[in-house]
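User: I'm curious whether this sequence folds into something compact or stays loose and floppy. Could you predict its structure so I can see for myself?
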Amino acid sequence: MAIDHERAEASSASSNNEIEMRNENEKLSRLDQTHSEDSDRTLKVPEEMEMGDERENAGLLPDTTEKPESKKPAWFGTVLWTSINTLATIGIVFTNKAIFSDPSLKLAQLTFAAFHFTITWLTLYVLSRPRFAFFQTRRTTVAEILPLSVTMALNVILPNLSLAFSSVTFYQVARILLTPTVAAMNFVLYRATLPRAALIALIPACAGVGIVSYYDSLPAADAKVKTTSTLGIIFAFSGIFASSLYTVWIASFHRKLKMSSMQLLFNQAPVSAFLLLYVIPFVDTFPTWSTVPVSRWVMILMSGAFASLINISQFFIIAQTGPVSSTVVGHLKTCTIIALGWATSGRSVGDKSVLGVFIAVGGIMAYSYVMIKEKQKAAAQATRS
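Assistant: Here's the prediction. I'll summarize afterward.
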């Protein structure tokens, strides 16, 4: 994109448009080829899902290989943006938890989601401007993007409600169920299957989540120990279903609309925010705004800033890291959030739910290992052929 932009300054507008369209078509053909190669529909770990399928669409992002070399070593940028993404992801979970711990803000979930969608759109709008040219915008109709926008709204609102009525540990461990749920949806909708070893690895992952769900929802003798309510569990599993459906649909909309994840998100976010405006007056319970502490307003702004940093850092992570590194970083974020959530929950190390945490995390790590090996094996076979 940056090269196209430089050419645009030296050529007429008509020739520039022809070049951009030709380059875009080439990139879209690579995207279609990628999806055809993924016909076995291998699944991602939850952290890769949260990235919004960006890596498959790296061909639609700016070509960074031809940019002038930086004075700093290549690993510096990788470490920098990976650290920013990791810290922002951890920060947004605990910041949102602190916001939702305020009873006056806990039931204003749709307003909070609309705020985040607006921040997301503004961030993507800035990144798409010629000065930055991180990606090229593509337009679609509201009717085409409407189903995905509704699912996107549920994908944000339900997990946020789960976080509001759950402990951070349960919230993060429950997200592990995204992988088996997407696997089940892909099998039902497309008859796609996973390697047997991967399926076996998902069994302890599901069992571990079940153990954590049971023990984390039991009443605690110590009032300082944070537990998960029945509502939290209901919202968690509803959110997992919505997030899984969103993940499955994303792949379908990539092919249907021939857009990258960021192009889709650029179209989805404003539609999702606009739809929520019709529902907010009937669902949300607003606080007396003048009584909301300044510290809460600061946290709300921090949450929006973290969301922007996550979106920005993803561009660099996609361009500079491979699938193995991305998976390792994803697991690092999961383990860090769970550990910090446990440390702030007031539970002892000997609590029975810790067994479920280790089983669930161990299961999803084993699944990731199997899937990486399968991809490497498939790549090796393709090279030989």
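Summary: The two ends are 33 Å apart (CA to CA). Residues 42-61+74-194+228-319 form one domain.
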